[in-house]
Automatic annotation (TrEMBL):
Pfam families: HbpS-like (PF03928). It comes from the Bacteria. It comes from Maribrevibacterium harenarium. This is Heme-binding protein. InterPro entries: GlcG_carb_metab_protein, PduO/GlcC-like, PduO/GlcC-like_sf. Signal peptide: none annotated. Gene3D superfamilies: Haem-degrading domain.
Length: 143
């Protein structure tokens, strides 16, 4: 009898907290207030933070961005291009409660393997993406 083993790399809580702090650091430099949510492979939150003054809707939007990014393993902004000419698919996905195509959700990859995702909300799309990108680069590429 053979035994199959599955090894999976996952985001750790400590890394999730570091990602939140790094995103918040970037937001301060941009003079914006954001919310950040980091999720594991199952889309469950590992860490989340809301800066004082961030829009009240932003915690949920950040969570949806992270959930969407981990679900498909790609940035949420990609959906705008991918669905530009596919209105039926866009309408179907928009009816899903945890899906968003707003920019600011990025998968977190370690050695080309998705281990979780980060979602940022509170600035414009480019600012949210910049904060999420800064967080990932700070935590996973400066070791």
């Amino acid at each position: 009898m053979t035994t199959a083993a599955i090894q999976q790399t996952v985001a750790a809580t400590e890394s999730a907290i570091q990602l939140c702090m790094a995103a918040m650091e970037q937001a301060k430099s941009l003079q914006i207030q954001i919310c950040v949510c980091v999720v594991d492979l199952a889309g469950e939150p590992l860490a989340a933070i809301r800066m004082n003054g961030a829009p009240l809707i932003s915690p949920e939007v950040a969570r949806k961005k992270a959930f969407t990014a981990v679900s498909f393993g790609k940035p949420t902004l990609d959906w705008q291009t991918n669905l530009a000419n596919r209105q039926n698919v866009l309408l179907g996905l928009q009816s899903e409660p945890n899906f968003t195509f707003l920019g600011g959700g990025l998968p977190i990859k370690v050695n080309d393997t998705v281990v979780g995702a980060i979602g940022v909300s509170g600035g414009n799309e480019q600012q949210d993406i910049e904060c999420a990108t800064h967080a990932i680069q700070s935590v996973f590429h400066n070791n």
